[in-house]
Amino acid sequence: MLSILPMSNPIQDYAWGSQELMATFLGQKVPSSVPQAELWMGAHPKAPSQVWVEGDWKRLDTLIEQYPSLILGEDNGVRFGPHLPFLLKILAVDKPLSLQVHPNAQQAWEGYQKEEAIALPLHAANRSYKDPNPKPECLCALEPFWGLNGFRSSTEIAAWFSWLAPQALREEISLLKSDDDPEALTEMLNSLLTMDKKRRRKVLDRVEKRVSSEAGRDMDDPVYWLAELIEEYPQDIGVLAVLFLQLMRLEPGQAIFLPPGRLHSYLHGFGLEIMADSDNVLRAGLTPKHVDVPELLRIVAFDSSPFQIIEPEPRIPGEYAYPVMTDEFALSVVELGPDLSELELTGKGAEIVLCTWGELQVSDEQSGSHSRLKQGQSVCIPSCVQAWKISGQGRAYRAHSGPHVP
């Protein structure tokens, strides 16, 4: 019978990753030999976790294929099919990520079918839709975390562009006449992304001169990030995203929910991310990868609503839930210490429990099996484990299918 499943999780070595943050978190040699960007916990076929079962390591996606009802539960199997509906990650961001957006369910289905119809290979460099699924996501900071999240108001963008390069950007400034006109933001972004090479070089030269005299060391100042981006991407007009998107800072424990259509980028920090099990990304810049401007403009939500910082809310003593309402995933954090060192929990569907501090033990109340967790270690709890206990002193994040665990 399946019980608590210890996990071995793959690390993605991307250029924007850190040689210190992930290695320190996992208790490995610092610095690591290559930048470590993401620790994946889940059953995504690109890089599935392995789980310890019956004295051997097995791929989690393969195990789900063998025992879908036992691991996912009957209800989740009906809702999502025979696969884990979410992917949990640790992100170690040392350099800015690409400026990007994710589709909703209808957009993902349409985009996927369109690329399938023209027989575009799944791994083609110019393919945007790897699957027909939406990709909402939630980021929770484990250390201070900076990013870009949603558009500024039109007048605020116009003011920043006027400060930076009033002549070189006069076409874009003239478009930004009203804060209540999403079409103005659409036209502004289209104008930037389709700018001819000569004018783009003129704008970027102006950026470089402006920030060389203005940039300081305040990471809450957009000019600081403008200087960082122009150094990293000197040929990319996407560096202006710092001026047309809202600058975001999260303190440890705070989170944000990124719905489909929200243009964003992560700049620096260490955090936990949970998302629908999809790999669909439309990019707008800060990357050498494919940028499809017409498709991007179809997907982006052109609104200037402020981003909402999410604080966890008490669910039961010792557990705090992030109020993120999406079918694919939900997230909560368990805090145990001298005053409360044990919690009994029940769930529905497969869960992943990750220890981010301290030492904990996760136990199956029925079978008596258990697994000890230190910082950076995780377990998968199948749906067939109807009641389980977590004990010790530490902090653990609990990921499962949404919208809530009863």
Low-pLDDT segments, ≥5 res: none
The count of helical stretches stands at 12
Integer-rounded radius of gyration: 22 Å
**Average residue-wise pLDDT:** 93
Name the overall outline.
Answer: globular
Oligomer: single chain
SS-derived structural category: alpha+beta
In helices, the fraction of residues equals 25-40%
- How far the N terminus sits from the C terminus, by CA atoms, comes to 24 Å
Query: Describe the biggest sheet?
Result: 11 strands, antiparallel
The number of E-state strands comes to 21
Q: What percent of residues are in strands? A: 25-35%
Quick synopsis:
The protein is of the alpha+beta class.
Structure description:
Strand 18 (351-364) and strand 19 (370-374) form a beta hairpin. This protein is globular. Helix content is 26%, strand content 31%. The protein has helices at 21-26, 60-66, 68-72, 74-80, 105-117, 154-164, 170-175, 182-193, 197-214, 222-232, 241-244, 293-299, and strands at residues 5-8, 11-12, 38-41, 50-53, 56-59, 86-93, 99-101, 137-141, 145-151, 245-250, 255-258, 264-276, 282-285, 313-316, 319-322, 330-336, 342-346, 351-364, 370-374, 378-381, 387-400. By secondary structure, it is an alpha+beta fold.
